[in-house]
């Protein structure tokens, strides 16, 4: 008798579980980009590792992950120590990030790689098409491109070929 | 081999020597082929890499020098102009020039300027590394082509103004390498097939002779001692076959001697037993036998029993010589032993009217045991007395010369025919059987002499004595006073 009661209890528990609303899946599927320059066999200067989101707003979480050291061996974060996200705002597909003054210490190709990491990571978020980075509310004056999208980056191993140009439409015969 | 089955057990294929030999051969050849297929290619790849590294870094440096003309920043127009001027001499697939941030200033691919990359950041590993101040070269070989990349920074007075990136897709050298690889593979396949066939043939040839030996051993084990194996060639296997044949020959001889000995011993033991049986039957069947005749019969039975005892004692002596460990040798004066024997045999000699004459050189000492020397001297001297003629002489001479002690026993008897001389030391061999039995001989005395002499490292010979009789000569190494080694 006890066995029958226990079996019935199990069936009820399974039925209740099946009908209950499923918990929200954590935000995931993002990739956080880091510098792979220290790996002499890496095909590209950037590589990414999967991001396990905490379920909140992905942008500050992704920026936090970018500013933290990576877990994968051979990858490195080029952001200077102490860089903080002061504010952020998405407006018409443009993500405006305001970072603390330490970010302004970057220059040359290191600044480009850091910008590229921010751009490639954050443009994965829905609604973000480009990233505009300021330091303490001001643009970095020596940076040639202030607003960067994935299209502005040529991330290949050099073997890429130019896209084929569309065939020109036949000229209508002169009437 | 299965016990009692008589058949040669088949060795399982994977355990057979032929398989092992063939596998060893194939493994060695495979190892050589692997080396042949890797080492030349690795070396060729390395040489091609080094050549390309030197060439492309040099080209990139030349271009970078041409671009670094002054303190003013590089422009897309200036870079394009310079690259167009030098492009013909570069001979690479792609040339990219960037500013210090990695922004593409000009990009030529297959001789055509690319517009789609202008104003974009070129994030090539080599380019970024070069912009950080390093000269870079990387090359890989795959799918029949070399893909090589070189990048150098454009510097003017230690100031990085940009970077030059060169990419080369070289299918020609790749095809050359692939050709070598294909040829080596073809050669390897041929060698592999030849070695496979050779491996099987060689191992078969080797193991065929081993199998031949094995069959020979099996046949001999079955008792066919006359079987001999014939293994050709002058190698270890043929030596082994020779040794085996030699061993089989000895086994055959030993077996023949054993059979003859058993047969002779049975015969010798049977004769007195038959006599005893006959005499006892006569005694039992004769109802009115007088006492004297009966005593005579009983004496004969006693004589036959004595003969049996002598034969068994001598057989035991021979067995002891064959099996028992030799007693420790001590220095023994042979002259003293001969005198003891002469003392013992004097009554017998007198009875048969034979005189014993001794010529003993003093100081003839040998390493042996006194009992064994006594046995040797007694058997020889007793034979000389027994098989002599009435009025005959026995001459016993003992001399020491050249480090050897020689005991010579000569008699003036009827002598031994020349044809019988080589056999007289064989067990149960008698020249004149009737006379020997009459004299109480067993046919074992001389065998005991020979075995005993050989046991002590001596030698014994027999020859006809001129003008009559026989001469036996026993020789031992003379003891020179050193410590006893045995």
Defining key terms:
A: alpha+beta; 4-stranded mixed sheet; two-stranded antiparallel sheet; 3 helices; 25% helix; disordered N terminus; B: 486 residues; alpha+beta; Beta-Lactamase; Helix Hairpins; 14 strands; rod-shaped
Layout of SSEs?
The complex is a heterodimer of chains A (175) and B (486).
Chain A: H1 2-19, E1 30-35, E2 46-51, H2 58-67, E3 85-91, E4 94-99, H3 108-122, E5 130-135, E6 147-148, E7 153-154
Parallel strand pairs in A: 4-5
Antiparallel strand pairs in A: 1-2, 3-4, 5-6
Helix pairs in contact in A: 2-3
Chain B: H1 17-67, H2 76-90, E1 94-98, E2 104-109, E3 112-113, E4 121-122, H3 125-131, E5 136-142, E6 145-156, E7 159-170, H4 171-221, H5 236-285, H6 291-323, E8 330-333, H7 334-351, E9 355-360, E10 365-368, H8 370-386, E11 393-401, E12 404-411, H9 433-438, H10 445-455, E13 459-464, E14 470-477
Helix pairs in contact in B: 1-2, 1-4, 4-5, 5-6, 6-10, 7-8, 8-10
Question: What would you say this structure looks like, in words?
Answer:
The complex is a heterodimer of chains A (about 180) and B (about 475). Chain A has about 180 residues and is an alpha+beta fold. Chain A has a domain at about 30-150. Chain A has helices at about 1-20, 60-65, 110-120, and strands spanning about 30-35, 45-50, 85-90, 95-100, 130-135, 145-150, 155. The longest helix of chain A is centred in the N-terminal third of the chain and has 18 residues, at about 1-20. Chain A is globular. The termini of chain A are far apart. With about 475 residues, chain B is an alpha+beta fold. In chain B, helix 1 runs antiparallel to helix 4, helix 5 packs antiparallel against helix 6 (about 290-325) and helix 8 packs antiparallel against helix 10. Residues about 1-5 of chain B have low confidence and may be disordered. Chain B has three domains: about 1-220, PAS domain (Beta-Lactamase, 2-Layer Sandwich), CATH 3.30.450.20; about 235-320, Helix Hairpins (Orthogonal Bundle); about 325-475, 2-Layer Sandwich (Heat Shock Protein 90). The interface between A and B is medium-sized, with 30 and 31 residues. Strand 7 (about 155) of chain A pairs parallel with strand 4 (about 120) of chain B.
């Amino acid at each position: 008798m006890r066995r029958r009661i226990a079996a019935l209890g199990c069936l009820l528990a399974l039925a209740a579980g099946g009908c209950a609303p499923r918990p929200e899946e954590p935000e995931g599927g993002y990739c956080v980009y880091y510098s792979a320059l220290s790996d002499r066999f890496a095909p590209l200067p950037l590589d990414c590792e999967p991001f396990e989101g905490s379920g909140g707003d992905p942008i500050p979480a992704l920026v936090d992950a970018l500013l933290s050291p990576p877990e994968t061996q051979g990858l490195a974060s080029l952001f200077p120590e102490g860089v903080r996200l002061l504010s952020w705002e998405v407006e018409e597909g443009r993500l405006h990030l305001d970072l603390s003054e330490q970010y302004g210490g970057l220059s040359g190709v290191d600044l480009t790689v850091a910008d590229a990491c921010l751009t490639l990571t954050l443009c994965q978020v829905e609604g973000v098409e480009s990233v505009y980075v300021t330091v303490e509310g001001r643009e970095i004056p020596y940076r040639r491109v202030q607003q960067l999208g994935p299209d502005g980056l040529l991330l290949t191993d050099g073997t890429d070929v130019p896209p084929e140009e569309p065939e020109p439409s036949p000229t209508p015969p002169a009437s | 081999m299965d016990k009692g089955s008589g058949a040669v057990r088949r060795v399982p294929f994977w355990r057979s020597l032929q398989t092992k030999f063939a596998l060893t051969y194939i493994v060695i050849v495979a190892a050589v082929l692997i080396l042949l297929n890797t080492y030349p290619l690795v070396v060729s790849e390395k040489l091609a890499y080094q050549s390309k590294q030197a060439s492309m870094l040099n080209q990139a440096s030349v271009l970078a020098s041409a671009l670094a003309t002054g303190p003013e920043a590089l422009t897309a127009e200036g870079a394009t102009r310079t690259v167009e001027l030098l492009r013909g001499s570069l001979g690479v697939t792609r040339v990219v020039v960037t500013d210090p941030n990695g922004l593409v200033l000009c990009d030529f691919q297959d001789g055509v300027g690319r517009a789609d990359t202008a104003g974009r950041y070129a994030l090539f590993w080599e380019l970024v590394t070069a912009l950080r101040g390093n000269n870079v070269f990387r090359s890989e070989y795959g799918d029949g082509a070399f893909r090589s990349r070189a990048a150098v920074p454009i510097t003017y007075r230690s100031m990085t103004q940009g970077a030059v990136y060169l990419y080369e897709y070289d299918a020609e050298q790749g095809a050359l390498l692939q050709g070598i690889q294909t040829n080596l593979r073809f050669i390897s396949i041929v060698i592999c097939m030849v070695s496979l066939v050779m491996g099987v043939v060689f191992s078969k040839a080797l193991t065929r002779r081993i199998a031949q030996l094995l069959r020979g051993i099996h046949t001999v084990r079955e008792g066919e001692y006359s079987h001999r194996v014939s293994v050709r060639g002058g190698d270890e296997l043929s030596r082994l076959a020779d040794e085996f044949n030699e061993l089989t020959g000895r086994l055959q001889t030993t077996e023949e001697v054993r059979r003859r000995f058993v047969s002779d011993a049975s015969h010798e033991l049977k004769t007195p037993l038959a006599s005893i049986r006959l005499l006892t039957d006569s005694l039992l069947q004769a109802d009115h036998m007088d006492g004297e005749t009966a005593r005579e019969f009983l004496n004969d039975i006693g004589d036959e029993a004595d003969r049996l005892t002598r034969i068994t004692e001598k057989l035991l002596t021979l067995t002891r010589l064959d099996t028992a460990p030799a007693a420790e040798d001590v220095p023994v004066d042979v002259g003293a032993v001969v005198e003891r024997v002469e003392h013992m045999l004097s009554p017998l000699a007198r009875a048969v009217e034979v005189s014993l004459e001794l010529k003993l050189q003093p100081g003839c000492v040998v390493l042996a045991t006194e009992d064994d020397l006594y046995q040797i001297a007694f058997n020889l001297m007793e034979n000389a007395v027994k098989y002599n003629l009435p009025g005959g002489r026995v001459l016993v001479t003992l001399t020491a010369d050249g480090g050897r002690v020689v005991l010579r026993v000569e008699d003036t008897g009827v002598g031994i025919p020349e044809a019988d001389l080589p056999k007289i030391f064989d067990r149960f061999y008698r020249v004149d059987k009737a006379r020997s039995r009459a004299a109480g001989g067993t046919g074992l005395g001389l065998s005991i002499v020979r075995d005993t002499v050989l046991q002590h490292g001596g030698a014994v010979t027999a020859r006809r004595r001129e003008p009559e009789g026989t001469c036996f000569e026993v020789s031992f190494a003379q003891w020179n006073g050193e410590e006893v080694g045995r």
